[in-house]
Amino acid sequence: MKLVAKNERVVKGGQLQKKFDNEAPRRHAELRSVLQRLARNNAVVVMVTNWGQSPLLWNFGCRADFRGIPWKNFTFVYALDADIQDVLQERGVASWRPNKVNIRNVSKKFGDSQYAKTVFWQIAMVHDILSMGYDVLAQDVDLVWRKDPLKFFAEADPDTDMFWMNDPASLQQPLYINGGFVYVRNNARTRAFWTEAYNHGHSHNSQQSILRPLFVHHYFNNGLRLHVLDNRFANGPLLGIKKHEVPSDWIVAHASWTHNMTDKVAKFRTLGEWDEHCDHGIGKEAWW
């Protein structure tokens, strides 16, 4: 069913969307069997990364491995450069690289020009997986899990369309969500939301700048049902560089609200979640 609101806006994408859409038949033919294998209760964990960000992905994986969470069994990664795609394949992580895309370096700070290059892909991956019929747990790579969150969402309120991390930035109130961790149930309302977000995906240097205005429109016009997660899904303000306020029963911790990779590592170390024995796949001197 295609959801059409009374005053639905016609939003056209740019060249990135055109190219991505043109690749869709080949991409979906290639990924269909992969996603069928990965889907758990029709849900897939999806991330996007490049070589520069990959130490955070491997830290996520090492902490999940330490806790016996078989993350590779249900995780799919959109790779933004050839080097990280090679490593993902070597390490047995299901992945796909957009044709001729080569966004290799880590951003120096949130929202800079290098970060802006990844924003489209953060949104496109959700739109893409939804279009293939799956629920999506979309997350940044700067997270760790204490428990498997897919189990939480399998039992969560069935009437909720999307679950978001809390982000108490005063600028965003009352739209206090963080785009770094979201569980999306696949239905007409969420597909309409993410299709519009996708068509705006080239227009801003942060994901949240695109998403915030759409929440109000889709809430009032399409009946989109949202839920903001409690502090067991701990976002950046709870993870300090020198101390933390993460509750003892936390499920997910997100090292957001930082200037750069150095601060993210410091936050994880404070929480005891930077795995010093992990093969992070890149020399320390290259990034912190």
From TrEMBL:
InterPro entries: Nucl-diP-sugar_transferase, UDP-D-xylose:L-fucose_XylT. Signal peptide: none annotated. Pfam families: Nucleotid_trans (PF03407). Residues 75-266 form the Nucleotide-diphospho-sugar transferase domain. GO terms for cellular component: Golgi apparatus. One of its GO terms (molecular function) is glycosyltransferase activity. This is Nucleotide-diphospho-sugar transferase domain-containing protein. It comes from Cymbomonas tetramitiformis.
